[in-house]
Design brief:
Blueprint (H helix, E strand, L loop, with lengths): L2 H10 L4 H7 L3 E6 L4 E3 L8 E6 L1 E8 L2 E9 L3 E3 L1 H6 L6 E4 L3 E6 L1 H10 L1 H27 L2 H11 L1 H6 L2 H8 L3 H13 L1
Antiparallel strand pairs: 1-8, 2-7, 3-6, 3-8, 4-5, 4-7
Helix pairs in contact: 4-5, 8-9
Length: 191
């Protein structure tokens, strides 16, 4: 378990060093090169992934076009939700946008931790609540906001994501074309 992950966990729930040490063997450290996949559509992978360094994107394919719907950068968590929640093959792909170092835990090992300790169960609940809220905010933004409003909110809340994300993925995430993203950026600069 990396220092990043330990720090992340302890910020949410006050674990002792001993409690962390007892769980360390249940986590796996993996390095993904840029463009490597953590999971591809149709594969089963119910692991929970924590990004130590780098960036992952989650997307699905519709009408032969990729639709990016989530990113995870340092100190964020991501999973193939369909596999984790429903024990089904993933309907999404998760791919490294940059060289990425991750820590992961299988659903089975996470269930072991949940059964052994109320603290681990609380950690899982709090992370899931945060993830659910973020997904609802994103859904609402597509219903109620313009592309420019979504861009400006992202610039305010996650400026690092704007700097690091390739334009094609960022435009896709915002629900616009790369050309529209270029125009939007020019209009914002003119203000």
């Amino acid at each position: 378990m990396t220092r990043n992950l330990i720090h992340f966990i302890k910020q949410i729930v006050p674990f002792t060093d001993e409690e962390i040490q007892k769980a360390e063997h249940l986590f796996t450290e993996t390095f993904l090169k840029k463009n490597d996949y953590w999971v591809k559509e149709g594969e089963f992978n119910a692991d929970i992934v924590f990004v130590n360094k780098g960036m992952l994107r989650a997307y699905f394919v519709k009408d032969e076009a990729e639709r990016t719907f989530d990113f995870a950068i340092e100190n964020q968590v991501i999973t193939a939700t369909n596999s984790y929640m429903r024990d089904m093959p993933s309907t999404d792909s998760i791919q490294a946008v940059e060289d990425t170092s991750i820590s992961s835990i299988s659903k089975e090992n996470l269930e072991v931790l949940f059964s052994q300790s109320a603290k681990w169960e609380r950690l899982g609940r709090l992370i899931f609540q945060d993830y659910t809220i973020e997904q609802e905010i994103r859904l609402r933004s597509f219903i109620a906001e313009t592309a420019q409003e979504r861009y400006e909110r992202l610039a305010k809340e996650q400026p690092e994501l704007l700097k690091r994300t390739p334009q094609i993925y960022l435009a896709n995430f915002l629900g616009i074309t790369p050309q529209s993203l270029s125009r939007l950026r020019r209009n914002i600069v003119k203000k």
